[in-house]
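Intended use. Records such as the Aspartyl aminopeptidase entry shown here are meant for training and evaluating sequence-to-structure methods. They are not intended to support clinical decisions.
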Amino acid sequence: MATVAPVVSDLVDFLNASPTAFHAVDEAKRRLKTAGFVQLSEREEWAGLEPGRKYYFTRNHSTIVAFAIGAKYVAGNGFHIIGAHTDSPCLKLKPVSKVTKGGYLEVGVQTYGGGLWYTWFDRDLTVAGRVIIREKRDGGVSYTHKLVRVQEPILRIPTLAIHLDRTISSEGLKVNNQNHLVPVLATSIKNEMQKIVGENGPMESSENKNMKHHPLLLQLIAKEANCEPDEICDFELQLCDTQPSAVAGAMKEFIFSGRLDNLCMSFCSLKALIDSASAEHSLDNESGVRMVALFDHEEVGSDSAQGAGSPAMLDALSRITGSFNSSNSKLLEKAIQRSFLVSADMAHALHPNYMDKHEENHQPKLHGGLVIKHNANQRYATNAVTAFIFREIAERHQLPIQDFVVRNDMACGSTIGPILASGVGIRTVDIGAPQLSMHSIREMCAVDDISHSYEHFKAYFEEFTELDSKVKVDY
């Protein structure tokens, strides 16, 4: 039986550290800092950027952009970018989550993205996300953002017994997202009989001060945040599966995990950037800027201050260019035309039980390498030139590559690729590693495709400048 490649084990660690987009960005920050990347703030000037140095910044702590400036970079040179996203379909807590009915304490949630919600039933669930905490410091008050994750399973969405739903076998499960997707936290009688007592006594005060959420839930969150329940000002929390990600299958050839779409591509691009810029002299001959941009809110259209539809990427390109030459306003346009974006989002692998869902000549296989996505109606931003460039890198390194178009009688999804291609004006190819069970609470992909993706992305960062100099189109 084959041994697990280090990059695969590293991905599993990344997935297990990243139950939410906030945690994924936090883990990315940790890895970038360890690799010598310096944090920037969008609220400050970037006047001190230097060739050969590495930087990153976050926006809303759910989007992160990291870049390594080539030692031979001058203003107007291109950016070599991989874009992915940090968010996945999930159930997020409502602003008022306190639900009590039928003798149960329940937690009100809203659906985020296009999830396969029936897969969330009968799973051991918990909550994770961020909280805003009021803290007293130096005689004043400050407000701090903290990440939290309750480790143990505290929630469950139970299915209805078949005896009470006799048509489910013939008609299938019919989920009403408002009525049926309400997780159980506790029973009312047990909560009343055994009031949680903290170190300073009963937590009655939190019930009086915050009627929007169950005091029991607030106490659990406060314990993780190391604060008192009445110090919690607000939060953004979501439900998470407590089952860890794992290398699995009889031949240990798969990864079983939540959030592969799209933390898998986020991880592979981030690791490729770090490794392509970490070795001594690795940036000595680079004249461009290598960049990874991991955006929030792709699953709901990217229209937010931290989504791909925001000016976040264009702002970064502009500020980097301007920090090296602020006198020539035309250099940014020149840089964009020399730039290239790999829009990396997971792809649909051929399903053995639903083979008719794929077009006959475009059936991506697990272990088959990255998939180049094509769509004549521009749901993907790939064209012949951008596909060739990405494919050429694969051929140079004997890496497998696949193609995908959706059937003409089926709707096509989309990615951040067309959004950034049209919004920034940058050449773009849409690609992704093949997977099954996309948007389920538990997805699967192949370990070989993790290695292929990482190697492909790393080669792209290291070789794009030289390859692009040989491609002649608009001349």
